[in-house]
Design a protein that fits this description.
Elements lengths: L13 H6 L51 H13 L3 H14 L4 H13 L3 H14 L4 H13 L9 H4 L4 H17 L3 H9 L7 H15 L3 H14 L4 H13 L3 H14 L4 H12 L10 H15 L5 H14 L4 H13 L3 H9 L8 H14 L3 H14 L4 H13 L3 H13 L9 H13 L3 H14 L4 H13 L4 H14 L4 H13 L3 H14 L4 H13 L3 H13 L4 H13 L16
Helix pairs in contact: 2-3, 3-4, 4-5, 4-16, 5-6, 6-8, 6-16, 8-9, 8-10, 8-15, 9-10, 10-11, 10-15, 11-12, 12-13, 13-14, 15-16, 16-17, 17-18, 18-19, 19-20, 20-21, 21-22, 22-23, 23-24, 24-25, 25-26, 25-27, 26-27, 27-28, 28-29, 29-30, 30-31
């Protein structure tokens, strides 16, 4: 996945702002209402571009990994657990291997790093000290031990010069931040700010140095100085919501409330009803004193490590997790780091751990409601419909105007083919709106799907067309509406143009390319269909329905051996039961000649 800097705190992503981040792209095919839909929400802190293994690899259950009864078995099982992206199992296996070979530095390193990444900080810290006995320049071990000292209120131990002067940019910046908060703990905050701002390095240092100098100034009760540092960070990256919030917070604390409100209003145009912005605006308007993010050196360093943990996510989950786990160790109430860890474990396929971290988000956090919605969606992925539904219904009962919770409930029900109940939920959501605005197109689109699935076509078409009026260039609406029209033999010219437009807007979306190929198939243009469906399969090779469609097109153009190959492949990709039955019949008996759809002249006007 690509790095997206925290829609909730860091980055205002335009696509997420449009759809509340809860949407997957699917064509009209009935099996595509995935329970994984809607997972990327306003809580998406960490989205990693360099996973330990390819994204399609599923996380293995720890119990399915080989039992380890020997040193080599434990070591190999640890390697297997890492490949399965199971940090808990990896930590246990490498720790077991270390007991069998306590002098093996490589195993010691692996046991330490995986234990820390998994959140076993108390288990990792003794291992860090053992590492430093052999390698005093070990970057992560020094960072963990330094965090431990600050956590315990020990600001006396100097870091080795070899660590603070390390040529590695990440190491240099990390320990510049550690040193700054150690000095703050010694009561030398002005000196800490001077040292930090004199740190030289890569260009990207500037953002972190200014932001953390702002934190130090804020900790030092100097809102005017903090505002200047935050302003510098804000001007470096205005797309980072975290910078804007910190800057406006200090503007208000400096008596510049209207400037602060103007910035908040600008962001609320991009991200309507974002809980952090709403809370901030209300506090500024009421004159309420806004609490500092860093009330102690431990909390300040936690915020610094949290920021770096997000930034290093491109280097892989393991390194990002180490920083975020140290952040929560230093400040267990750092909700941003907890949400970051939840998103990271979601990326690793560990929904139970994601729920664990989201559940730890403090009750007073503006992001608590979002965390609760996300918990429900994780339960949904775990096929626990009862828990997901109960979680969302509780939120809706507490606040019947909560459009996001209502829509999420509808989406969960829709994902389980409970279309009538889902439609009821969407109706409730629309009833909360005094005026339907452009960003509400999603709920009309979702309701249209549920109505189409219940054969309420006239009502469904009305929803799709109203959604398209709000978002004329939205490829998902164009795709679904166009495909549905063709499937019914209605308005074929308009429908084909809609889907072709959707493909132009999103040419690498395999589902939409599949829709265009299938439209050509339904129109009897089999050669063109095969060409488009081959492209769709290249984009989505593991989708059973797209492979099934390509098999059908091959059959119609006389490529019958290839058709059966594609149907066999579709069978092996675990299609839905109703699709599997149809695919097996074609494998056994082949197909009859397809009958192209024909629209009445009235429909084609």
């Amino acid at each position: 996945m690509t790095l997206t800097s925290y829609f909730a705190l860091f980055r205002s992503n335009s696509a997420s702002a449009q759809n509340n981040g809860r949407m997957t792209y699917h064509s009209v095919n009935k099996n595509r209402f995935s329970k994984r839909a809607l997972m990327a929400s306003a809580l998406a802190l960490v989205m990693v571009s360099s996973p330990l293994v390819p994204a399609q690899s599923a996380k293995a259950n720890s119990q399915s990994l080989p039992a380890a009864s020997s040193l080599s078995g434990s070591y190999l099982s640890g390697r297997s657990a890492l490949l399965a992206q199971d940090l808990a199992a990896a930590s246990n296996y490498f720790t077991s291997a270390l007991q069998g070979d306590p002098d093996n530095f490589y195993i010691l390193d692996r046991a330490f790093v995986t234990s820390l990444a998994n959140g076993n900080v108390e288990k990792a810290l003794p291992l860090a000290n053992r590492i430093l006995e052999e390698d005093n320049e070990h970057f992560l071990a020094q960072l963990a031990v330094a965090a431990q000292r600050i956590h315990e209120g020990d600001f006396t131990t100097e870091l080795p010069d070899a660590v603070t002067q390390n040529v590695n940019p990440l190491s240099r910046l990390s320990f510049a931040l550690v040193s700054a908060w150690v000095k703050a703990g010694q009561g030398k905050t002005d000196e800490a700010i001077a040292d930090l701002t004199s740190t030289t390095g890569a260009k990207w240092f500037d953002l972190f140095i200014n932001f953390n100098a702002g934190l130090l100034a804020e900790y030092n009760n100097n809102p005017h100085q903090a505002a200047e540092f935050y302003k510098a960070a804000y001007e470096i990256d205005r797309g980072a919501l975290r910078n804007a919030i910190s800057y406006t917070h200090m503007l208000a604390a400096s008596g510049r409330q209207q400037e602060a409100l103007d910035i908040v209003a600008e962001y609320e145009q991009l991200i309507p009803e974002h809980p952090l912005l709403v809370t901030l605006r209300e506090k500024i308007e009421s004159g309420e004193v806004i609490e500092s993010v860093a009330k102690s050196p431990a909390e300040g360093l936690a915020e610094a490590l949290h920021g770096l943990g997000i930034a290093v996510s491109k280097e892989g989950e393991e390194l990002s997790a180490n920083y975020l786990q140290l952040a929560t160790y230093l400040n267990p109430k750092n909700d941003s780091a907890l949400i970051g860890l939840a998103s990271l474990f979601e990326q690793l396929g560990d929904n139970e751990r994601a729920i664990e971290y989201l559940s730890a988000v403090s009750d007073g956090s503006p992001m608590k409601r979002e965390a609760e919605i996300q918990i429900a969606l994780h339960y949904n992925i775990l096929d626990n419909l009862e828990e997901a539904r109960a979680h969302l219904e509780k939120l809706v009962k507490a606040d019947p105007s909560d459009l996001e919770a209502i829509t999420s409930l509808g989406n969960v029900l829709r994902g389980h083919s409970l279309f009538e109940e889902a439609e009821t939920s969407y109706n409730q959501g629309l009833d909360t709106l005094s005026e339907i605005q452009a960003n509400h197109w999603t709920i009309l689109y979702f309701r249209g799907i549920t109505r189409e699935r219940q054969d309420k076509w006239d009502a469904a078409e009305e929803d799709f067309r109203e959604a398209l009026t709000l978002k004329p260039e939205q490829p998902m609406i164009l795709n679904y509406l166009g495909y549905s029209l063709v499937d019914r033999g209605l308005k074929l010219d308009e429908a084909q143009k809609m889907i072709e437009r959707a493909v132009r807007l999103r040419p690498t979306d395999g589902y939409i390319v599949d829709s265009l190929g299938w439209v050509y198939y339904r129109l009897g243009r089999y050669e063109e269909a095969a060409e488009k469906l081959e492209r769709a399969v290249a984009l989505r090779p593991h989708d059973p329905i797209i492979n099934d469609h390509l098999g059908d097109a091959y059959w119609q153009v006389g490529r019958k051996l290839e058709a059966r190959y594609k149907w066999n492949h579709a069978r092996d990709l675990e299609p839905e039961p109703e699709d599997l039955k149809r695919i097996l019949d074609k494998i056994e008996n082949g197909m009859e000649d397809a009958v192209p759809v024909v629209a009445s002249s009235a429909d084609n006007k």
